[in-house]
Amino acid sequence: MDSIAFLDRKAEKQPRPVYVLAGDERFLKRRVLAVLRTLVLGPEDDAFGLSTHAGDKANYSTVSTELVSAAFFSPRRLVVVEDADPFVTRERAKLEKYFAAPSTTGVLVLDVQTWPGNTRLAKLTPDEATIVCKAPAAARLPEWCVQWCAACYGKPLAAAAARLLVDLVGGEMGLLDQEMAKLAAYAGDAKRIDAADVDALVGASRAENTWKIFDLIGDGKTGEALTLLDRLFEQGEDPFRLLGAFSMQLRRLAQAGRRVVQGVPLPVALEEAGVLPFARASAEKQMRRLGRRRLGQLYDWLLQTDLGLKGLSPLPPRTLFERLVVELARTPVGPLAAGKP
Questions:
Q1: What pLDDT is stored for residue 339 in this prediction?
Q2: Can you point out the beta strands (E) in the chain?
Q3: Within the chain, which residue ranges are assigned CATH 3.40.50.300?
């Protein structure tokens, strides 16, 4: 079962003996686990019936003992094994026996990254108890924001505002949720949250710093751009939020670059890409710095940086951004660099 569908529907009346939270989206896992805590321990949850274990250190004997022991202050015990992939690998045979005949006094939750459907454990787990916690595709995130904001914060979020929010913050659902909570409070008695609210509350300082970096890139001032980037990291800027701001600008440049290749004059292409009038001179300078070939590579660079931040690169986030800035600011080549739109 998809985690968003699980969160949207009415809670089950009785908990299942085993749940598997599979995937890499921590925000969704936290929300699903909060629902399960209420379901298993009751609305007056005092945490006496909850125990958690780290998957790399969890001992099956301890876990199973807790599952079969009666809870003192709650209807059942809730036993959670976090980051449970090594626990599952180590104790697979014992878990298969437990899944076939689980305890009636405890509920086991396994938090795993992967859960292959062809294993015996997976086949012993009902579909309703396997909750997949993965973020929606990037194209669907604005739609999720609209639904989530209305359901959780009671405030409609305009579609344009949702798109801008994702552009600025990036695809980290926990960060998007935090910003929606702030926006709902910021909007006050307004009937809905509009793009202007997102721009004012979320975008102003981040966009300003990003524009400064891109202005320096357009001027070929690589060292100064890297200094400003380092300052942002030293101030605790979240890498995913920074990537959202970078993505918004670079996607506009890439879109304008495609239109130029199709024969559209550069000023018109920038307008069509959504570059505001006051920023067009700077954007034109950035495009000429990049040149036609590198404009066509922007989406690939953004994807590489995004995947790197999600763990597919051994490089730290700061280094990933430094590499991107250096690539963007290096000596221009190609027709745009020569001043031929």
A1: 43
A2: 18-22, 50-54, 77-82, 106-112, 130-132
A3: 3-132
Handedness of CA 51, 54, 58, 60 (dihedral sign): positive
The structure's pTM equals 0.64
Q: Which fold has domain 194-329?
A: Zinc Finger, Delta Prime; domain 3 (1.20.272)
Q: What secondary structure letter does DSSP report for 331?
A: P
Q: Rounded CA gap, 74 and 228, in Å? A: 53
pLDDT digits (tens, 9 = 90+) for 280-299: 888 999 998 898 889 999 99
The torsion region of residue 206 among left (phi > 0), alpha (psi -120 to 50) and beta comes to alpha
Can you tell me the mean pLDDT for 178-207?
85
Q: Which residues of 77-99 are buried (b: 16+ CB within 10 A; e: fewer)?
A: bbbbbbebbebbebbeeebeebb
- Helices (H), strands (E): how many in the chain? 17, 5
The string of DSSP codes covering 46-74 is -STTEEEEETTT--HHHHHHHHHSPPSSS
Cβ-Cβ contacts under 8 Å for 217 (sequence gap 6 or more): 225, 286, 289, 325, 328, 329
Residue 241 contacts residue 175 (beta carbons within 8 Å): yes
Residues in Cβ contact with 223 at an 8 Å cutoff, skipping those fewer than 6 apart: none
| CATH of segment(s) 3-132 | 3.40.50.300
Q: Which residues contact 180 (CB under 8 A, 6 or more apart)?
A: 145, 148, 149, 152, 153, 157, 165, 193
**Residue 341's pLDDT is what?**
40
Answer for the pair 267, 280: CB distance below 8 angstroms, yes or no.
yes
Containing H/E element for 225? helix 222-234
Q: Residues with Cβ < 8 Å from 230, sequence gap 6 or more?
A: 318
Cα separation, 317 vs 315, in Å, equals: 7
Beta carbons within 10 angstroms of residue 221's beta carbon = 15
